[in-house]
Amino acid sequence: MAQLGSRLPDHPLMRPYALLFIYRNRVRAQASQELLAGAGIAIAVALIFATLVASGSIAGAASEVVHKVVGPSKLQLRALGPEGLEEHLLARVERLPGVKQAAPILEVPASVSTTGGRRLSVAVIGADISLGTLDGLAHTLPGAVLSERAIALTRTSARALRISPSEVGAGAPLRVSLAIRGRAVPLSVSAVIGPEAAGPLAQVQGAVMPIESLQGISGLEGRISRIFVRPYPRDVGMVRSELARLAQGHMSVVPADQDVALLHQALRPSNQATALFAVIAVLLGFLFAFNAMLLTIPERRMTIADLRIDGTRRSAIIEMVLFEALLLGLLASVVGLAGGYALAVGVFHQSAGYLAQAFVLGTSTVIGPLPVVLALFGGLLAPCAASVVLLTDLRGGRAVDAVYFENGTPGNALGPRMQRRLFAASLALLSLAALLLALVPSLTLIACAMLALVTVLAVPLVLSGALGLGEAISLRYERFTTLPVAITSLRSTTIRSLALAATGAVALFGSVALGGARGDLLHGLAAGGRANAADGNIWIINPGDIMQTSTFIPSADLRRIASLPQVAGVSAMNSQFADVNGHLVLALARPSGTGRQILHTQIVAGNLDRAIREFDSGGWIAASRQLADESHTRVGGLLRVNTPTGPRSFRLAAETSNFGWPEGSLLLNSRDYMSSWATGTPTALAVRLKPGVSIRQGQRAIHALLGDQSGLEVLSAGAWTSRFEALAGEGLGQLGQISTMLVIAAILALAAALSSILWQQRPALSALRLEGSRPHRLARLLLVEASFVLGVGCACGIVAGLAGQLAIDAYLAHVTGFPVQRLATSLRPIEVGVVVALAVLAIVALPGWLASRISPALALEQE
After folding, report:
1. 246: exposed, middle or buried (Cβ count in 10 Å: 0-12, 13-18, 19+)
2. What is each CA distance from 760 to 247, 463, 477, 841, 851, in whole angstroms?
């Protein structure tokens, strides 16, 4: 190094070969440290890339599907209710001036089951040749797709049902049963639609059949869901006006690809929650990388001191530091991108099953340039930020060899004055974070970032206090002979100890805050599900229709079910998607005397008893707070809802949570629903059993009455609630995956950091062996040191994590409208802390055992 430095004084910058030579030598000497730093950076990059790709893939894949279906059409006439549009409107639309093409479509949710007992919920699309001509699919789809009394499955649906394309069309027809609107209809499979024929449509969990056949088996004769319209380019505005005149407020005239915009809106609350979790995870990954880089600081500071002693200029050293940081960041980022891609398509692949009844969704993973750019930026920023610490040795007036005269191991000093300054900064940041949370809840992300930094800044003084307490204990109890030696060792390696403790603190902060907040959200959603199911012991719904938005033909005569000797009463329930200010909201219609538990558990503003009376009287609704905010309406004001009979205004009886539907929810009286939607067709029947009748007895009686051809599912309230919770958990699965990944990353990062420190301690341990210390005493010494540092880090992380959990709970409730049960998982922080600490100690047990048996000869070699 001295020889290299002697050739550099006259040059303001180093040449490339010199930069590579210095870095290669340092990697050879400190390979474990560089690998650890690179691992921390790779974790950060993988988290950034995976979460961004997984979050964007739902909307991206759906956009591909929608644009494939609508083709060149620009407008659509869309029904506002479950009964759809009158089919004869198609001819009127086609005759409008300026219309080049028009094509109808009928969409009905259903369930397909095979003879082997496999079942899948699908969106069945009824179409004719006009749609294929409009979007160009007529040239690529197999001719058998529109066969009479048959159904064509997409490749994704066929795989889920374990149907091979080779089985279709070979020998006897392949039969399936389609449960649709209360009927079970046997059909043959006409084709399996692959990507070669339909592109992104093959990724949809759906099926296609002729529109006439679908109308017949669904009981929707002469009805369609929407009409896609392709106007001449110069006549778009005129056609829009003509369609609006035709609709007269009873239908929607919207862009052909409106589903994409609606899906983006529906995903916004979930994406906000996921983005909050993801950004915090990214911040923690960044801090992992930063702390891992800190472990390399002592050796790098001594290298810089050697270069300065040899006369190397400051500009050359700055160049060297930035070169090494960027090279390490780039190499680690490449690894991180590969790992992030694996996470995005595997672990983090976001499910949106809870949106499937409102949207036709794709399942492909869509990767845009933004996730790659942001991930690389984060991967390069972390090592550069950590390397700034090195440049403090270059400030004017500081001796070039000052690092060798610090207390303890050279390059490891962090004095009491600096510790107090960092702690004061942490208190200031904590106060600012609390102020932000109180005044602007939407800035929770910034507040959580501050809390993470508070955790890191508080660690030095807390560790110093813990060491002081340990010294006091060792003086009082002299039999603890290992304790003072461990404390002395920790004080001599301050930076390394702090980096390890800070890594543990940050990891526990993220795990506790994110995992706890997700648990609170799931508890809140579960409470909402139980409240929704409280009006019946048994629920009769279309198979898989957990949101209860699919109507069914009233073959299940309500009066016949009510007359069963086991039944005390039956209530017809209705749930539909409604348009409020351009948002697709969930409208729940309940008869008078029901819906009490929903109001009781979900109300956030308004008087409960008064809201119940107003709800029963009619003309009043309860609505999600975010809908009231967007409409600038408060309790007692008017809220406008677009319905099939035209716009209707209702008085607001109470503000509620969103019941778990991200775009918001309404609760209205069944009488108001039937008059506004012009239908009384139920989407669910709630059955109340007589006292003493078991759920099983009631289900058997109802099954016997309905028969095998009803196509309806009979569930207990508990089973329906469990499915609702599973669906909600599926929608929030990525939050749990991020939380779990943070725990795993915490364990691996801490284990790697501790193993690196053990490796670096070999000379000191060898010297102790030379002085006569036995291996078991050294092993005990290492255990005490590790326990001290892990304990401090975990304690700081748990305390900060609880504060972060409260902050995220407030954010989720205020910004997303989700029902949140505050601090519902209060024992989890301790559990996570114990698991992390024990797992780390178990992983490093072998490296610690080997380190305790280091040969004394190493100490002689160091001399």
Report:
1. middle
2. 77, 20, 30, 18, 10
Query: What is the three-class DSSP state of 360?
Result: coil
What band does 8 get if pLDDT is binned at 50, 70 and 90? very low
Type and span of the H or E element at 238: helix 236-247
Please write down the HEC assignment for all residues of 132-192. Answer: HHHHCHHHCCCHHHHCCCEEEEEHHHHHHCCCCHHHCCCCCCCEEEEEECCEEEEEEEEEE
Task: Report the distance separating Cα 771 and Cα 79, nearest Å.
Answer: 87
Q: How far apart are CA 100 and CA 719, in angstroms?
A: 50
Question: Inter-axis angle of helices 444-476 and 482-492, to 10 degrees?
Answer: 140
Write out pLDDT tens, residues 409-421. Answer: 554 555 677 778 8
DSSP conformation letters of 384-450 = HHHHHHHHGGGSTT--TTGGGGSSSSTT----HHHHHHHHHHHHHHHHHHHHHHHH-GGGHHHHHHH
Which pair of tokens denotes residue 390?
Answer: 């090195």
Backbone angles phi, psi at 31, to 5 degrees: -60, -40
Does residue 233 surpass a pLDDT of 80? yes
Distance CA 514, CA 650 (A): 38
H-type alpha helices, 666-732: 670-677, 695-706, 717-731
- Name the nearest CA neighbour of 201 among 100, 127, 115: 127
pLDDT digits (tens, 9 = 90+) for 527-568: 888 888 999 999 999 988 888 888 887 655 778 888 999 999
Q: If pLDDT is split at 50, 70 and 90, which confidence band does 281 have? A: low
Greater confidence, 233 or 365?
A: 233
CA dihedral of residues 251, 255, 260, 264 (deg, nearest 10): -80
Residue 743, token pair as written in the block: 């725990």
**Dihedral of the CA atoms 461, 465, 466, 470 (nearest 10)?**
150
What is d(CA 729, CA 521) in angstroms, rounded to the nearest whole number?
A: 9
Q: What percent of the chain has pLDDT over 70?
A: 83
Question: Rounded to a whole number, what is the distance in angstroms from the first to the last CA of the chain?
Answer: 19
Tell me the pairing of strands 620-624 and 665-669.
antiparallel
pLDDT digits (tens, 9 = 90+) for 806-846: 888 887 777 777 788 766 556 777 888 888 888 888 888 88
> What is the average pLDDT across 101-130?
89
Measure the CA–CA gap between 115 and 111, rounded to whole angstroms.
13
Q: In this structure, what is the dihedral angle of CA atoms 594, 595, 600, 605, given to the nearest 10 degrees?
A: -130
Average pLDDT of every residue of the chain: 81
Is residue 1 over pLDDT 50?
no
Amino acid at 284: L
The answer to pTM > 0.85 is: no
Residue 388 backbone phi and psi in degrees, to 5: -60, -30
| Residue pair 792/501 in contact by the 8 Å Cβ criterion | yes
pLDDT at 839: 86
User: What is the helix, strand, coil percentage profile of the chain, to 5?
Assistant: 60, 15, 25
